[in-house]
Amino acid sequence: MSGNNNNNSYTSIDKSNLLNPEIDEENQMFRRRRTEENDEEERAQINDRPKPKGPRWKGESAKSVVYGGLDAIVTCFSLISSISSGGSMSSVDVLVLGFANLVADGISMGFGDFLSSSTEKEMAFKERDVTQWEVDNHAMSQITHLIERYRELGMDPRDATTVVEIFSKYKNIMVDEKMMGQKGIVPPNEEEKPWKSGLVTFTSFLLFGCAPLLSFIILIPFTNDDTIKFIGACILSVLALTLLGLAKAKISGGSYTLSALMTVSNGVIAAAVAYAIGWSLRNLAGLEDP
Hints:
- The chain has helices at residues 15-18, 24-45, 62-84, 91-137, 139-152, 157-167, 171-181, 194-209, 211-218, 226-252, 256-283.
- It is an all-alpha fold.
- It has one domain.
- The longest helix has 47 residues, at 91-137.
- The protein is elongated and about 80 Å long.
């Protein structure tokens, strides 16, 4: 093998070892049957099936925005709920604990996203090196395995051989196809920056996590009743969760109603559990300050 990576080719596939001439007639019948079935399905569906909605935002940051925002709202709202269940802390205490927890969790979440993205990228590069070695040193074996995979997916044996024979002429394409097709690993993207995912998660966490705390700031000039402020925090949290659910549906092209219900339900359940645990520890277990 020599020359440019994209133009490297392997020894032409010996089709006689992969296809038995005695099954040529069977292969032709199989192909005709598959073609007829596909034509019938296409004719039946072409006028009835609308074009599916695709995701409206295909950026790599979509996961970080939704993940960071949802976790921030639920975490902060749950913290406020557990504190408010005892009724012994003032609004200032809630704000101090809330913002301190918000920043600390935001840093942890952002760094965690950076580490996980970096690890995933490094693993993909290492796996690509392994696949590259396999293709370079055991070309025919890898080609045969790929042909068998395509046949298992329903491709005509002769077509599978033709497709893989074309792939085998281009080393990079062959390696990427083996990674995705046989190992289920997406080839690494050189332009992907893990630090961007971490930064987006951190920023999203801070922005969405502020929603439950805003009530304790906005209502300061109007009331000193912490119960009213907690109710305001509940309302703002539900609104933030709803907006995040709608944004998730907008990004992914899913159902607005279902997405909003899922995010709100997640937040309500988590906050209710936190409130119940806080109330139980104070009133049933007797963990009150002397």
